[in-house]
Amino acid sequence: MTTLSFPPDFLWGAATAAYQIEGAWNEDGKGESIWDRFSHTPGKIHNGDTGDMACDHYHRWREDVALMKNLGLKAYRFSIAWTRILPAGRGAVNAAGLKFYSDLVDALLEAGITPYVTLYHWDLPQTLQDEGGWPNRATAEAFAEYAEIVTRALGDRVKNWITLNEPWVSAQIGYREGRHAPGHTDLAESLAASHTLLLAHARALPVIRRNSPGASVGITLNLGPQVPASASFADRREASLADGFVNRWFLDPLTGRGYPLDVAQQLGARLDFVQPGDLEKIAAPIDFLGVNYYTRTIARASIPERENAPQTIFRGAEITDMGWEVYPQGLYNLLGRLHFDYNFPAYYVTENGAAFPDQLDATGQVNDSARTRYIQRHVQMLHKTIQAGIPLQGYFVWSLMDNFEWDKGYSMRFGITYIDYVSQRRILKQSGIEYQQLIRANAVEA
Ligand code: IFM
Hints:
Blueprint: E1 3-5, E2 11-15, H1 18-21, H2 34-39, H3 57-71, E3 75-79, H4 82-85, H5 95-110, E4 114-120, H6 126-130, H7 138-154, E5 160-165, H8 167-177, H9 187-211, E6 216-222, E7 226-228, H10 233-254, H11 261-267, H12 278-282, E8 288-292, E9 297-299, H13 329-342, E10 347-351, H14 369-387, E11 392-398, E12 417-420, E13 425-428, H15 430-441, E14 443-445
Helix pairs in contact: 3-5, 7-9, 8-9, 13-14, 14-15
The protein binds 5-hydroxymethyl-3,4-dihydroxypiperidine.
């Protein structure tokens, strides 16, 4: 049996996000977020689920840190709920909220687990949404104020910061497709939102660096190869636009290239929200890029099949519960392309994982072989990436535990830990056990 060994300092981690696991949505002074409002609106979430209780992590975090320690995690990526810190988005600070995260950070460090903190994972304060939300430039200023307070409180101990998680999803799914909070369906709003999100990132960078000396600061994007369905010109053009829309829309401005004009033209976007000096600020250097990779996307031009020759070539792929193709090779392709085209100083895979319909078996265990294989095959690609000389520093499996999967509620299970939502019992799945062994060996089978 061949094993692929990793560098001794490679960081094995797991990730979560506040709204998806914490629960306690209105406890200890927490304010209302757009996800509280959205999930409480009938008809928005599968089965009427909400994050009110979620995994009850707010009360069970000590048990969860013990679980992480037992797994052997080197790092844990979690997000902070803005409304625990600033219940009204700006202004009065809620000391209980800061204490919760401060205690969590202390416990992680005590357990030998390095915290990676995401400042924003989609739960905008409702008060700020009432003032216009992300399409409103002023939200970037509020974010800087929030970053100031959090990093002043935790910056002595937290040395790895992620400003935003997947701003594309916040802007596109929240403001254009309406499937996520705040549930709007307006292209112009979504484009303006994407710009304010980048401004927020830019405004927060110097704040974090000032309050957390020596910290590494990055941003996490959802990225994936956009592959033409065929070699036809129409499909290749479609793939290039899709790449522009999903990948380049954020990568280009972050690296000083401005917004991709092919995409702006295609969308009929005037980009009149860009003010002098914005693009320079957005292009300030970051220490790493966080990459959330789940799948690739096949791009197919919407023209009649018979005109689109040759015919679509991808068939029979393994698909997860989310309907996403399992395509490990795409992770290697993506990281290679990112490094070749953009040359970031370092990379983390800040999310990667799969939803499958897990069940407890008669012995009370979860034999999630499909997820186990998914993780193993993607980890093999990490090894290949490092071998290729790309500065990949860590991997965070999504997710540490089953949780609230946004509009899909609890119907999707992504965890390496099973959550029994009735008893809130945590049960390490087979994939968790294998991940534990992988971490211990610092190697994966070839
Ligand atoms: O659950 C989400 C997470 O919040 C952001 N990235 C994708 C995951 C799976 O959909």
